[in-house]
Amino acid sequence: MSLRSIALVMGGTAIGGYVEISRGSTVLDSHGAQITAITPAILIGCGFWSIFHGFTVGRARAKYAELARKDGEKEVDERYLLPNLYAQGTSKHARAFNCVQRSHQHIFETFTTAMVGGLTGAVTFPICTSLSTLMYAVGRYYLSRGYAETEGDASKRYKYPVAKFMWFGLLGNITLGTLSCCMVASGKNKLN
Questions:
Q1: What predicted TM-score, i.e. pTM, was given to this entire model?
Q2: Is the dihedral of CA 15, 174, 27, 140 positive or negative?
Q3: Most buried one in 25, 96, 115, 133, CB count within 10 A?
Q4: CB contact at 8 A, 126 and 32
């Protein structure tokens, strides 16, 4: 992500938050609780999806271990099966499995930050945060899907153009969560 992209996301998020605070009060006054609940609902959906995506890793582990056996690779069980998180070696099957495993592992490197930023941001900016969280969720799904489909070539993980939205949504949640903390700490929370 370039510095320009970061500046655009943070600036757009800040402008969206300003517009929401200054112009969105009529919507929030009548539907604030319902709108605030959208972000946690999206995050809960992401959590369930990450569990089901883990089953993909289990199937891939068995698939690529079997393919490695058929190709005559040595010590397949020791290299592919649990407790190893990643398959050891550089064969085409090991690389392909490791991309599937990485597609799942990468979720946990960003999910906590997206969740904390999203839940914190939804306190003050429920509309912008729900949009940012949705952007994260859609991008996260397609990035993981792209990673899992690369067949060992991790450079193709962004084959779905919307996969990059994950990073924009994550940065948006961080920005909105930080702004929300600042507003609550200063006593200027509009939802009170």
A1: 0.85
A2: positive
A3: 133
A4: yes
